[in-house]
């Protein structure tokens, strides 16, 4: 199971990086989203995917899954959610003010 | 008593929340922020003295024992850096009203400012890798807010690049923590150090170490990963540039110093010798950038990069002497980069341009600013009585001790080129024919801007002239750093 998850994480990272290297701003943001999905899946996988009950204390259950990676993922998800929403607004403003969403055209040397 | 450790994080956090509620009353916010920053500085200074006299303070959050809960470790290294951070914060909060417009100030500048200070202090104090990631995000989110404040065309363009590179490296950080967790089964630094020590950092652990290095090197702008730094750093307001230049890359350097002296210190031949090569390349490419441009802000921004190279050189050589050089240089560089960004911001403000070719003879109108800048350039380059000298001396002594002649020569040469790049601003901008002041109405504010920078510069000069007062502390820190057992024992209490 870990192997499948590792391959899936790898595919997410690959497509994410491919999208990061595109010219269109929105594609780049989609790339960052894919990479963060890949990272979160990696955390889950690295905690080992042993079968067990959900980590909620219940009577009569001996075997739980590892609760720590789930807490880490939850933290990481909200953080990347916050950054992504900021990035989307930033891209919107930048595209509006600079008049383009093409990263090639977003360079320039006009500093004061 | 160990609760003192949380104060450097908690106080700015509370201050930031309070000023968020009254952001529309600009004068009140401004004065309140000054009070908060000064009080915070005094309290942190007191905690620093306490740590210096009584030894490391370890705070176990929520009374959970060390490897299971989050720990805050207030050792002397972390407290020294937190104190330096707060000194810069005080200077910046007094500089801010001069350089920011009223609208920018009322748009939550001080909230972002205090969040940044809180995040940086947290990153210095934490003893947990995932918590370090969270504090990185706290300070980065605040820096995203600061970098777009003002909504300029160039700012929006550069901030996209800044956010993207940081988001990518944060995700890499999370992945690397996941790898480390799968190998050692913990995210607590002390326990991870203990477990890595047990297996003597074999196989995959060195790969993880290099991945950690890549993450922190992106934050710290080490050679192949520095391309994102210069332009985003000069596009925001001068006070924001000063905060960034003084604090953000140094958090990356601190993280490299911490992880590679505490956790991954067993494969020194592989990892640390890699650092030496990268440090040399960082210095060379940084100074090439600094002497290649005519934009005065860009010159200072490029000068951050060779400074990171110097610090990395000390970590790479990895002896007590060189580590003490790194720590001294770290403190010195935080202060002097703050000074330089403030001064160069003031210069560009009064000259109405940051293009060196368009300014001349400013010293006739602004003698104080000019001589401060001259002094700051000498401090940066490491001319003997000033603070840059002692750090570099220790680093070069460390390099000669380990017979790393190549890096020593590169370091000396790049010091010369740093001096050249800074003095070029002084000669071309301040000397020369007296021309009319381009924007006379800015004269009064421009003179006011010199004051916080002068106060910081005094401290920087004091750090060099009074090296005998500070150096024993730095030396005891480097002894402490070179013996990770003390850290592990104080956290895990064995």
TrEMBL record, chain A:
InterPro entries, alphabetized: CPA3_antiporter_subunitC (IPR050601), NUOK/Mnh_C1-like (IPR039428)
Topological category with respect to the lipid bilayer: Multi-pass membrane protein
Matching Pfam families: Oxidored_q2 (PF00420)
Main location: membrane
UniProt KW Disulfide bond keyword: no
Record-annotated membrane-spanning stretches: 6-21, 28-47, 67-92
Record keywords, A-Z: Cell membrane, Membrane, Transmembrane, Transmembrane helix
Subcellular location: Cell membrane
GO cellular component, one term: plasma membrane
Keyword Cell membrane: yes
PANTHER family the record matches: ANTIPORTER SUBUNIT MNHC2-RELATED (PTHR34583:SF2)
Protein family membership: Belongs to the CPA3 antiporters (TC 2.A.63) subunit C family.
Record protein name field: Multicomponent Na+:H+ antiporter subunit C
Native source organism of the sequence: Halobacillus dabanensis
From TrEMBL, chain B:
GO biological process terms on file: ATP synthesis coupled electron transport
Keyword Methyltransferase (UniProt): no
Domain NADH:quinone oxidoreductase/Mrp antiporter transmembrane residue range list: 127-417
The organism's place on the tree of life at top rank: Bacteria
Cellular component GO terms held in the UniProt record: plasma membrane
Keywords: Antiport, Cell membrane, Membrane, Transmembrane, Transmembrane helix, Transport
Primary residence: membrane
Listed name of the protein: Multicomponent Na+:H+ antiporter subunit D
Organism encoding this protein: Halobacillus dabanensis
Highest classification ranks of the organism: Bacteria, Bacillati, Bacillota, Bacilli, Bacillales
């Amino acid at each position: 199971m870990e192997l499948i998850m590792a391959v899936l994480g790898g595919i997410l990272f690959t497509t994410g990086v491919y999208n990061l290297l595109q010219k269109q701003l929105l594609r780049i943001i989609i790339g960052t989203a894919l990479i963060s999905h890949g990272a979160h899946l990696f955390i889950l996988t690295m905690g080992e995917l042993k079968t067990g009950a959900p980590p909620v204390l219940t009577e009569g259950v001996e075997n739980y899954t590892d609760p720590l990676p789930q807490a880490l993922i939850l933290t990481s998800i909200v953080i990347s959610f916050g950054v992504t929403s900021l990035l989307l607004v930033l891209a919107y403003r930048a595209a509006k003010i600079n008049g383009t969403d093409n990263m090639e055209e977003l360079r320039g040397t006009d500093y004061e | 008593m160990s609760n003192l450790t949380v104060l450097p994080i908690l106080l700015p956090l509370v201050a930031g929340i309070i000023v968020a509620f009254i952001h529309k009353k600009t004068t009140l916010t401004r004065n309140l922020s000054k009070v908060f920053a000064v009080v915070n500085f005094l309290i942190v200074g007191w905690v620093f003295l306490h740590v210096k006299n009584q030894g490391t303070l370890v705070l176990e959050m929520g009374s959970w024992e060390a490897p299971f809960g989050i720990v805050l470790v207030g050792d002397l290294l972390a407290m020294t850096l937190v104190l330096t951070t707060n000194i810069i914060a005080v200077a910046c909060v007094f500089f801010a009203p001069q350089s920011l417009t009223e609208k920018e100030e009322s748009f939550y500048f001080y909230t972002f400012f205090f969040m940044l200070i809180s995040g940086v202090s947290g990153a210095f104090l934490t003893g947990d890798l995932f918590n370090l990631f969270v504090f990185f995000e706290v300070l980065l989110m605040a820096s995203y807010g600061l970098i777009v404040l003002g909504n300029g065309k160039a700012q929006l363009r550069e901030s996209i690049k800044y956010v993207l590179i940081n988001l990518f490296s944060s995700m890499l950080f999370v992945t690397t923590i996941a790898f480390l967790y799968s190998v050692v089964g913990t995210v607590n630094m002390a326990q991870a150090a203990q477990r890595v020590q047990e297996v003597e950092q074999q196989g995959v652990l060195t790969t993880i170490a290099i991945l950690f290095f890549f993450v922190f090197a992106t934050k710290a702008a080490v050679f192949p990963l520095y391309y994102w730094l210069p332009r985003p750093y000069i596009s925001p307001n001068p006070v924001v540039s000063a905060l960034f230049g003084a604090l953000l890359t140094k958090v990356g350097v601190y993280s490299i110093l911490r992880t590679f002296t505490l956790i991954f210190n067993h494969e020194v031949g592989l990892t640390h010798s890699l650092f030496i090569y990268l440090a040399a390349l960082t210095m060379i490419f940084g100074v090439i950038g600094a002497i290649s441009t005519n934009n005065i802000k860009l010159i200072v921004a490029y000068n951050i990069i060779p400074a990171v190279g110097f610090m990395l050189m000390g970590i790479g050589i990895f002896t007590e002497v060189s580590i003490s050089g790194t720590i001294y240089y770290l403190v010195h560089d935080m202060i002097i980069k703050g000074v330089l960004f403030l001064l160069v911001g003031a210069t560009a403000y009064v000259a109405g341009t940051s293009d060196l070719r368009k300014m001349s003879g400013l010293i006739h109108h602004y003698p104080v600013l000019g001589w401060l800048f001259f002094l700051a350039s000498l401090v940066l380059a490491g001319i003997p009585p000033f603070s840059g000298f002692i750090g570099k001396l220790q680093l070069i002594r460390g390099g000669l001790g380990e017979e790393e002649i190549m890096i020593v020569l590169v370091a000396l040469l790049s010091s010369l080129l740093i001096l050249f790049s800074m003095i070029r601003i002084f000669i071309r901008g301040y000397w020369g024919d007296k021309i009319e002041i381009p924007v006379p109405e800015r004269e009064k504010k421009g003179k006011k801007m010199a004051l916080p920078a002068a106060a910081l510069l005094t401290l920087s000069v004091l750090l060099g002239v009074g090296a005998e007062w500070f150096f024993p502390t730095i030396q005891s820190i480097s002894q402490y750093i070179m013996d990770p057992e003390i850290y592990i024992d104080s956290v895990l209490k064995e």
